[in-house]
Design brief:
alpha+beta; six-stranded antiparallel sheet; three-stranded parallel sheet; 11 strands; 39% helix; 14% strand
């Protein structure tokens, strides 16, 4: 197969124009962040409107068979196939273009997708909802009267211009690195795998060699910023204050609450529950961060690709991503022990840190506990992230350089990760009002979390 790569974050019009210009047999779409899912639905609608018949293959971290069957496939009269991982792409492509294979392949796919849609509809009917007031009444209960928040060593921002890459190496989580190469298994157990072990060892050796080059020859530059602020919860929102007088609101973070009925004794959680309510009189705090290890990567990747060295181009991207996650780990460690110091006496092994046994959490906007990517805008405005680090946000709220991590620091010892899951129209409307966003915009950004079909 000849693959025509037109890049990332490409507008729908350009994708379809290029598909027509090259008279392609298949259009491939990859979704890395949740807004991509809505774009894929839009592309399917546009292809239908334009009378196209080109099959579509869908893949990427945020995609799924269920989303493809329920949200995308029904908008296009021609094949739309979710591909679980890259290793299966060739087989799917052959089945789509082969006259001998296509009929059976599509018949099987239709049966599969119909089954997915039926199961989805059945689950929707069985869902037991709480109204928003009931969900809020069942919030996580924290004894604020006996809680004394730790006062951070500073409030405001702290910028890190050229953070030493070697300080991140021991914090690298290698398991996702192997997953990015379609080698499923946990590190270091994967080396003992009868089928993948030898390949994993070779890949790891190559990675170590390049990692040394990245550090010794300064291929990449790490930049980051953290901010610590006085804060209190107001409803499901969090007010961030300009100073300790707490008289002026600097910005407001918005969170969503689990709304499906829980088993007895289980709360309907919201990240805001981990910050002291303003009415309690407890003076609490919150933090934010954005880090990247991708400064300088584009030139290196371009040099590899110019020499048709895709292996090392992919290797560099994968390592930059791992370093970015490690940088986020390093910063969180320093926040816990040094800058905010709410866990100043923490003493955890790397294994314990990998299992997130520390106090506090650092959820990212766009992830299960905080699924709205537009909350990144508030982080960027709050800390002037673009000016201080060079990290920009695209219209889809993807970070560039892509080897970047951002999020919010919650320091309460009971703070934990969870998934908001599906929410109903009542909460979506209330959320839009709190954020000053139209219903259509909120539904666009929260599409994977909607427990109803938008009008």
């Amino acid at each position: 197969f000849e693959v025509i790569d037109i890049g990332v974050m490409v507008p729908t019009a350009t994708i379809l124009e290029e598909a027509k210009k090259h008279n392609v047999d298949i259009v491939g779409l990859s979704g890395l962040i949740t807004p991509s899912l809505e774009e894929m639905t839009y592309i399917a609608k546009e292809m239908q409107r334009l009378g196209m018949s080109t099959p579509v293959m869908i893949g990427g971290a945020t995609t799924s068979k269920a989303h493809t069957a329920v949200k995308i496939d029904q908008h296009y009269d021609h094949p739309i196939v979710w591909v679980k991982d890259a290793s299966r792409a060739v087989g799917v492509a052959q089945s789509l273009i082969s006259p001998e294979l296509r009929g059976t392949f599509m018949a099987d796919l239709k049966v599969d997708y119909d089954g997915v849609r039926e199961r989805h509809a059945s689950r929707q009917k069985e869902t037991k909802w709480l109204n928003l007031a009931q969900a809020r009444a069942n919030k996580m209960q924290i004894d604020w009267a006996s809680y004394q928040p730790t006062v951070p060593g500073f409030t405001g921002i702290k910028v890190f211009d050229d953070y030493p890459l070697q300080d991140m190496v021991k914090h690298i989580d290698w398991t996702p690195f192997f997953h990015s190469w379609e080698l499923k298994g946990s590190y270091p157990k994967i080396f003992d795998d009868a089928e993948k072990g030898e390949e994993a060892k070779k890949l790891f050796a190559d990675a170590q060699g390049m990692l040394n080059q990245i550090i010794d020859e300064k291929w990449l530059t790490a930049k980051g910023i953290i901010g610590l602020y006085p804060a209190n919860a107001v409803g499901d929102d969090i007010e961030i204050y300009t100073d300790e007088s707490r008289s002026e609101v600097l910005t407001t973070f918005h969170n969503l609450r689990q709304q499906q009925q829980k088993a007895k004794g289980k709360p309907n959680r919201c990240l805001t529950d981990f910050v002291a309510p303003k009415a309690s009189g407890v003076k609490d705090y919150i933090g934010a961060f954005a880090v990247t290890t991708g400064i300088g990567i584009d030139e290196r990747v371009a040099a590899f690709e110019k020499n048709y060295d895709d292996y090392n181009a992919i290797m560099l991207k994968a390592l930059a991503d791992r370093l970015a996650e490690a940088f986020a780990e390093v910063m969180h460690l320093r926040v816990r022990k040094e800058f905010w110091a709410y866990a100043a006496d923490e003493s955890l092994s790397q294994a314990q840190m990998a299992k997130e046994e520390y106090k506090g959490i650092r959820p990212a906007a766009g992830y299960p506990a905080c699924p709205d990517h537009t909350e990144k805008d508030l982080i960027w405005e709050l800390m002037d992230v673009k000016a201080n680090t060079g990290i920009i946000l695209t219209e889809a709220k993807a970070m560039v350089p892509t080897a970047a991590v951002s999020g919010i620091y919650y320091g309460h010892p009971e703070a934990s990760y969870f998934a908001v899951g599906k929410i109903n129209r009542e909460q979506v409307e209330a959320y839009g009002q709190r954020k000053g966003m139209s219903m259509a915009d909120v539904e666009y950004w929260l599409a994977p979390n909607l427990g109803y079909d938008p009008d």
